[in-house]
Amino acid sequence: MALNRTGAMRRLSTNVVPMLMSLVVAATSGAQPSAPLSRAVEDLRLDGAERDFSRVGFVLVRPDGVIAMAETQDYRLRFFDPAGRQIAMFGQRGAGPGEFAPRSGTPPTPDIRGGTLGDTVWVYDGTLRRFTLIAPDASLKRTFALPAYLPGWTGGGPEARETATRALLNFTVSGLLGDGRILGQGTFGTRTSVRQPNGRLTLMSRGTDQHYGVVGGDSERFLPVTDQPENTAGVEVTRAGGLQTWWLLVPFRRSAIEHVAQDGDRVLIVTYDITSNTGGSFIVRVVRASGDTVVHRSYPFAGKPISRARADSAVKDRMAGYRGGPNRAPSVAPDVADELERKIRAAMPGVEAPLWSALLGLDYTIWLGLRGEPGQSRRYLVLDERGNPWRTVELPVGAGSVVRANRTTVWTTEYDADGLASIVRYRIN
Q1: Per the structure, how many domains does the chain have?
Q2: pLDDT 10s digits, 130-163
Q3: Could you list the residue range(s) of the whole structural domain that residue 411 is in?
Q4: CA–CA separation, 77 vs 72, rounded Å?
Q5: How many other β-carbons are positioned within 10 Å of the β-carbon of residue 188?
Q6: What Rg value do the Cα atoms of the chain yield, rounded?
Q7: pLDDT of residue 230
Q8: Average pLDDT for 312-322
Q9: Would you say 237 and 343 are in contact if contact means Cβ atoms under 8 Å apart?
Q10: Cis upstream peptide for 63 (omega within 30°)
Q11: β-strands 389-394, 37-46: how paired?
C-alpha cells in the first residue's frame, strides 16, 4: 500500500507515560517463549447460510454468554443465547433513537463499532456521532452524543491563520468506560493555513502522532494514556520543503498491532525490534484507561529468513505503481522512485516476525496469533494478564480468526467460498 500525503507518522517524545503511576513487569530474556499446547474443539456454530446472515460486523460476548453480532448491511444487531437461539434483534436504518445512519460509500453501510459495559451493549454511530446503549433485554436504554468539541479531519474558518498550530485533528472512538468517559485514539498534528496565488487561504492538516486517551467527565481535555509506538513500517520521501510527501510500506515489516479490550478498560500494543538476520524480540504493552501500565515485557523470537528472490519480488511489486509499466506511466519522478526503493531495501528486515495478530481476551488474557504456513492449523500464544506464557491454543485447520476469547472459550468468524460469515465457538481442552 502506498500513500501520498502531507505528513507521516513519527514518534512523539513525551513525558506523559513516565509521569503515570505504573506497574511495569520486567522484560524477559533468553529462549523464545512457549507454553503447553491445548486444542480447541468446536461446540457451537451460528451458520451464516442457515441463519441468513448478511454482512457481519463486530461480535461481542456479554458476561452471561449472549453473543451480540452486528449486521451492518441491515443496520441492526442480532442477539443469540449461549445455546445458539436467537433471542432478539435491535436497530434499523434511520437517525432516530435506536437507529443507525448510513455513511457515504458504496454500498452505504453504517459506521458503527461496539463494546460492553457489564451486561449492557453500547454502539457508537460515527455518522451521527452518537452512542446507543442497549439493555440486557435488547431494549433501548438511552442515547447520548459525542462531545461537540471533539474534531474530525475538517476545520478552519475565519480563524484560519498563516501559521502552524498543533491540535487534536481527529478522534476515533474505541471504548466507553463505566464513569461515562470515552476512550479513543487521537491524532495530533498541525493545521496550517497556506495562502494560494488567488489570495484564498487553504487549510492543510498534517498528522504527526497518535495516542490512545480519554475524554469526558469534568474536563474537555484529551488525556493521553499511551505514547505512540515508533513507526518503522514505512519510509518517506519529501520534496518542496515538506509540502509533498510520499510514504511507502516496507515489505515484511509491520507497524504496531493494537487492540482495545471489549470493555474499553485496557489497550494492548505489540511492537517489534528485529535486531539481526535471525530474529529479535517483540514487545507487549498493556495500559489501562487510567494510564497505569500493567504489562511491559519483551520476548525473543527466531524469525523465518526472507530469501533474496522473495525480497526482490516484494520490492518490485511495491514499486510498480511508482515506476509504471508497459501500459502505465510512472506516478512520480524517477529520482523520487529511486530514493523510495533505496530506503525500503535498507529498511527491509532479513526475517519475518512470528506474529500476525494480537487481541485482549474478555478476562484480559493476551492472545498472540502465530504466523504459520498455508493449510496448517491456526495457533495462538496466550499470555496471562501479567504477561506470563500460559498456553499455546491450537484451532482446527480452516478455523477463522479469533474475535473474542478467554481461558476456556474462543469465538471466531469464519468465511465460506462465497464470503458468507459464520460465528463459531470453541472450547479449550
Answers
A1: 1
A2: 999 999 999 999 999 998 877 643 333 333 333 4
A3: 2-149+161-306+349-428
A4: 8
A5: 19
A6: 23
A7: 63
A8: 92
A9: yes
A10: no
A11: parallel
Q: How far apart are CA 151 and CA 294, in angstroms?
A: 30
DSSP for 27-52, written as a single string: PP-SSPP---EEEEEEEEEE-TTTTT
Query: Residue 423 in contact with residue 412, Cβ under 8 Å?
Result: yes
Q: Please, are residues 322 and 307 in contact by the beta-carbon 8 Å criterion?
A: no
Domain assignment present for residue 311? The answer is no
User: Helix (H, G, I), strand (E, B), or coil: what is residue 97?
Assistant: coil
pLDDT digits (tens, 9 = 90+) for 187-242: 887 766 666 667 776 666 666 678 899 988 776 788 888 876 666 688 889 887 66
What would the grid cell of residue 142 be?
A: 438511552
Rounded distance, CA 76 to CA 53, Å? 11
CB–CB of 163/203 below 8 Å? no
Residue 364 · residue 372 · CB < 8 Å: no
Tell me which DSSP letter residue 412 carries: E
Asked if 406 and 426 count as a contact pair (C-beta separation under 8 A), the reply is no
Strand-pair category, 401-405 with 355-360: unpaired
CB atoms within 10 A of CB 410: 26
Alpha carbons 109 and 101: distance in angstroms, whole number: 8
Neighbours of 46 (CB within 10 A): 22
Dist CA 168 CA 178 (whole Å): 24
Q: Residue 181 domain-assigned?
A: yes
Signed CA dihedral, 161, 152, 233, 236: sign only = negative
Q: What is the number of alpha carbons within 13 Å of residue 304 lying toward its C-beta?
A: 12
3 pLDDT tier (thresholds 50, 70, 90): very low
Minimal CA–CA distance to 234: which of 6, 4, 8, 7? Answer: 8
Q: Which CATH number does the domain housing residue 67 bear?
A: 2.120.10.30
Supply the DSSP symbol for 325.
B
Q: Is residue 256 part of a domain?
A: yes
Start-end of H helices in 329-391: 334-347
What Cα–Cα distance (Å) separates residue 95 from each residue in 1, 75, 322? 35, 11, 43
The distance of Cα 218 from the centroid of its chain, to the nearest Å, equals 28
Q: Please state the pTM of the whole predicted model.
A: 0.84
Cell reading at 90 = 435491535
What is the per-residue pLDDT for 153?
35
Cell numbers that stand for 335 in this block: 529520482
* 291/170 Cα distance (integer angstroms): 20
Res 241: pLDDT:
66
Residue 37 lies in a domain: yes
